[in-house]
Hints:
By secondary structure, this protein is mainly α. The protein folds into 2 domains: about 10-110, no CATH class; about 145-224. The protein has 9 helices and no strands. About 30% of the residues are buried.
Amino acid sequence: xxxxxxxxxxxxxxxxxxxxxxxxxxxxxxxxxxxxxxxxxxxxxxxxxxxxxxxxxxxxxxxxxxxxxxxxxxxxxxxxxxxxxxxxxxxxxxxxxxxxxxxxxxxxxxxxxxxxxxxxxxxxxxxxxxxxxxxxxxxxxxxxxxxxxxxxxxxxxxxxxxxxxxxxxxxxxxxxxxxxxxxxxxxxxxxxxxxxxxxxxxxxxxxxxxxxxxxxxxxxxxxx
Length: 224
């Protein structure tokens, strides 16, 4: 046997001894980690499947509620949406609240509609866009049924310069001030809409008409 062969055999024996020593010491831990990986992977796959199924079922239930509403079965639609709020995925819970609020408003249940919109706005897990829209929808309902303070509470922060929904928020505030007889503050809100180059054209046109009405009632007159 050559020296090289002898050295290789010794080296292999040493490696074998080290592997056995390592396995004796850490074998149970290695097996445990392997089992844990399998369990976690399997659990994650099951969770993906389960949540996917839940979302699909919630989507079908939501569309069924919408169909009921379109068929004129509003009470049944509201009942279906109320049920969907409690046992579906988060996104469909929010959609059910929003749609349920709209259905209630159409049915004349303004207080119930506002409560639903407020629930969306107060939900820390809801999408920020949904929350902003819910505040605006509630504020628009409160123009007729609430006070300026009620409207301000919902959309005041949304009316700030640069805010994404400032146009709708300012319109709600302007209408609330106008209804309360505060023509000066109503003018300020509507005039800011006209001066904002990002105000949607339809709203800008509507705003100019309201400014003419404010002027006709003895309020401030916009400089041309």
